[in-house]
Automatic annotation (TrEMBL):
Family to which this protein belongs: Belongs to the GHMP kinase family. Homoserine kinase subfamily.
NCBIfam families: PRK01212.1-4, thrB
Function according to Swiss-Prot or TrEMBL: Catalyzes the ATP-dependent phosphorylation of L-homoserine to L-homoserine phosphate.
The protein's name: Homoserine kinase
Organism ancestry: Bacteria, Bacillati, Bacillota, Bacilli, Bacillales
Top-level taxon of origin: Bacteria
Record has tRNA-binding as a keyword: no
Organism expressing this protein natively: Paenibacillus herberti
This protein's encoding gene: thrB
Pathway: Amino-acid biosynthesis; L-threonine biosynthesis; L-threonine from L-aspartate: step 4/5
């Protein structure tokens, strides 16, 4: 017997972490909330202005994903009342679509009496998103290393180093993941493939063993970032200079346009790094908003329905870390 209503909070994610294209991801302390309950007719409410333009009829992603969960479980889907609020900006490289997919899957799974375990949810979510890095991070929290062969995802979750935090610079324009994937070549030189295998392996080992000193070199990439850089004015300069301004490493977040700088907790150079990010992007004509975030360690969390953010006015998001 399932629950009669479910409110779930799901973290954003940053995919790739540089070289780990479609394989590495980290959950971030920026969230989406999905509430789902059976109803006499289907109603979808999107709260706040962050989800403007998203349909609220049965073509909505959340509704369709809930339907797939019921289908996978071999159950009839009831009409649903769905409410969602999100802090995760759309199409900026912070996994908004993955958080919506994971939120809808977890909520529908709870309503249906948990026919799928988390592993089953990962397989379904990866099939829907097409790559496991964002959905894996949103579903498990922390750092994830994943592989996908088109039909099966294998994933290991790692605890992020305690000292690791992040600054994201979010440009004020959208870049659909699909468009940023079309910028990629269909073939790569062998030397570039070898370069990425070395950096990805080193990055996973550095993160697993807390070798923060290696992160900057391990986050280099030749597989996707050089091809996506022309889509984001100032990106190449940010990636080249961030380590000189106090970052442990820097990468394009997911398919962009957001840029991720990994920083050490309590670093005295955060303000210097933020000024560098804003000025470098600004000089290239890219206005961006900065957030200080932590890794999210939990993935989806079921909350009491009174904790829905649409029940209370939202303040402006400033990020989690101390200035
Ligand atoms: N809550 C939601 N409901 C419906 N569709 C959503 C929701 N969140 C995201 N999406 C869809 O996902 C798209 C963004 O996904 P994508 O291009 O992969 O970028 P990202 O995942 O980096 O934000 C949006 O333009 C929208 O079509
Ligand atoms: N590995 C994918 C990640 C896309 O992430 P998103 O947050 O931009 O949806 C890619 O690099 O295309």
């Amino acid at each position: 017997m399932g629950m009669t209503s479910v409110l779930v909070r799901v973290p954003a994610s940053t995919a790739n972490l540089g070289p780990g294209f479609d394989s590495l991801g980290m959950a971030l302390s920026l969230y989406a909330w999905v509430d789902m309950r059976p109803s006499s007719s289907t109603v979808i409410r999107l709260h706040g202005d962050g989800l403007d333009g998203i349909p609220t009829d049965k073509s909505n992603l959340l509704y369709k994903v809930a339907g797939l969960l019921y289908e996978e479980a071999g159950l009839d889907m009831p009409e649903l009342e769905i409410n969602m609020y999100s802090e995760i900006p759309l199409a900026r490289g912070l996994g908004s679509s993955a958080s919506a997919i994971v939120g809808a899957l977890v909520a529908a799974n709870e309503l249906a009496g948990c026919p799928l375990d988390r592993e089953g949810l990962l397989q379904l979510a990866t099939r829907l998103e097409g790559h496991p890095d964002n959905v894996g991070a949103s579903l498990f929290g922390g750092l994830i290393v994943a592989a996908w062969d088109g039909s099966r995802a294998d994933l290991i979750r790692l605890e992020p180093p305690e000292q690791l935090q992040a600054i994201v610079a979010i440009p004020r324009f959208q870049l659909e993941t699909e468009k940023a994937r079309h910028a990629l070549p269909t073939e790569l030189p062998m030397a570039d493939a070898v370069f990425n295998i070395g950096r990805t392996s080193l990055l996973v080992a550095a993160l697993a063993s807390g070798r923060l000193d290696l992160i900057s070199r391990a986050m280099q990439d030749r597989l996707h970032q050089p091809y996506r850089a022309p889509l984001i004015p100032g990106m190449a300069e940010v990636l080249a200079g961030a380590a000189d301004h106090g970052a442990l490493g820097a990468a394009l977040s997911g398919a962009g346009p957001t840029l991720l700088a990994v920083v050490e907790k309590d670093s005295p150079r955060l303000a210097e790094l933020e000024a560098f990010l804003t000025e470098t992007l600004g000089a290239a004509g890219t206005d961006a908003d900065l957030l200080r975030l932590k890794p999210d360690l939990y993935g989806p969390v079921i909350l009491d329905e009174n904790e829905a953010p649409w029940l209370a006015p939202q303040g402006n998001r400033k990020g989690d870390l101390q200035a």
